[in-house]
């Protein structure tokens, strides 16, 4: 059973989402919160598997809530569930450590998929997130030599790391990557960590976006470039 805490300041949103989630036998909503500080207290008390939270909440917003949760000893899985598809706080939420991002209005099957992927260690990279991350990374990238508009070099990925990156871009968790490449899950985890380190990414989602911006993959079809 996947134990979930819902965090949104609109009761009707929480009620609707609870009704959708509890149509699945393996999903259980154990608490609802309307404020970020309430999320922190509830998470510490109940130790849920998944926290599904909005970015807009009183007292403490979603981004700060994610940062605080990431400082806790328990490894919570955190999914952002928001209506703000043009809000730069989405970028901040991913950089703060969100395991996935969903727009309100997403089909229920996509919500279920995001939850199960997060539980398995994967991440759902929706197109709106990819485009915003790519734009953000592009804006942050500056020329490093006089008259040179190229992207600063990174440590070259190995052939195996490129294979892992391709599967990572499909949202696969380490277990599925290991199965696909016929390697151990521990080895898959090592490759993912190495990829993130070489790309300078703080999480899997950001690694995929940076890789796309660097031309290593094409997010339209998740194929090696």
TrEMBL record:
Any coiled-coil regions, as ranges: none
Pfam families linked to this entry: GerE, Response_reg
GO biological process, one term: regulation of DNA-templated transcription
Keyword check for Phosphoprotein: yes
Molecular function GO labels: DNA binding
The entry's keywords: DNA-binding, Phosphoprotein
Organism of this sequence: Thermosporothrix hazakensis
PTM-bearing positions, type 4-aspartylphosphate: 54
The protein's name: LuxR family two component transcriptional regulator
Keyword rRNA processing: no
Domain HTH luxR-type: 150-215
Residues annotated as domain Response regulatory: 3-119
InterPro entries associated with the record: CheY-like_superfamily (IPR011006), NreC/VraR/RcsB-like_REC (IPR058245), Sig_transdc_resp-reg_C-effctor (IPR016032), Sig_transdc_resp-reg_receiver (IPR001789), Tscrpt_reg_LuxR_C (IPR000792), WalR-like (IPR039420)
């Amino acid at each position: 059973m996947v134990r979930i805490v819902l965090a949104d300041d609109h009761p009707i949103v929480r009620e609707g989402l609870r009704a959708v989630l509890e149509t699945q036998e393996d999903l259980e909503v154990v608490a609802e919160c309307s404020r970020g500080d309430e999320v922190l207290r509830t998470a510490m008390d109940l130790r849920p598997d998944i926290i599904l939270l909005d970015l807009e909440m009183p007292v403490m917003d979603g981004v700060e809530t994610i940062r605080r949760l990431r400082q806790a000893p328990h490894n919570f899985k955190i999914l952002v569930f928001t209506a703000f598809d043009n809000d730069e706080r989405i970028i901040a939420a991913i950089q703060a450590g969100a395991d996935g991002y969903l727009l309100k209005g997403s089909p229920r099957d996509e919500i279920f998929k995001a939850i199960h992927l997060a539980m398995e260690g994967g991440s759902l990279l929706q197109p709106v997130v990819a485009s915003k991350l790519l734009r953000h990374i592009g804006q942050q990238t500056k020329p490093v030599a006089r008259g040179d508009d190229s992207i600063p070099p990174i440590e070259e990925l190995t052939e195996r790391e490129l294979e892992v990156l391709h599967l990572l871009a499909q949202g696969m968790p380490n277990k599925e990557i290991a199965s696909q490449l016929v390697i151990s899950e521990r080895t898959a985890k090592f490759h993912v960590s190495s990829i993130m380190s070489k790309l300078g990414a703080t999480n899997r989602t950001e690694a995929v976006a940076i890789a796309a911006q660097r031309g290593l993959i094409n997010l339209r079809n998740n194929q090696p470039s």
